Task: inverse folding
């Protein structure tokens, strides 16, 4: 018997909920499916944190959900996360054209870790950026299948 049906969503803690939401909506084409102010009593039980929490769930054009989380009085430490940190390090998106998204993000002053590169197997073109919320995002264009 399979216990897991699928990955439900990926949660990303952000400093600015609206700015992050606009990025996912206006640049990446996600759609908002739910905005919530979570119940503080429930959060104190399930997260062991008595803080206010606002969330926005967004659906990706090809499926999948990103949940943006903003906790009250918890600024993100910009030095906290490194690409080689243990645990969740980045979220990866398949895109139709890496060069277009690269140029859009560069104009919006995202920190580009490199220019788009071809993978060793020549099947993908990809790059990483560091967002304004200190999140690492990977963008991948599939060039050919093996």
Result:
């Amino acid at each position: 018997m399979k216990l897991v049906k699928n990955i439900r969503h990926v949660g990303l803690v952000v400093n600015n909920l609206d700015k992050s939401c606009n990025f996912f909506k206006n640049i990446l084409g996600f759609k908002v499916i739910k905005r919530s102010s979570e119940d503080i009593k429930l959060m104190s039980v399930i997260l062991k944190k008595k803080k206010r929490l606002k969330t926005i769930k967004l659906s990706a054009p090809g499926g999948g959900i990103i949940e943006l989380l903003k906790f009250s009085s918890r600024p993100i430490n910009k030095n906290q996360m490194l690409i080689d940190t243990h645990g969740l390090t980045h979220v990866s998106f398949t895109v139709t054209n890496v060069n277009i998204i690269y140029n859009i993000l560069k104009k919006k002053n995202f920190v580009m870790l490199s220019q788009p590169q071809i993978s060793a197997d020549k099947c993908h073109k990809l790059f990483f950026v560091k967002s304004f919320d200190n999140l690492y995002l990977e963008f991948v264009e599939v060039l050919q299948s093996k």
Q: What stands out?
A: The chain is about 20% helix and 35% strand. The mean pLDDT is 85.
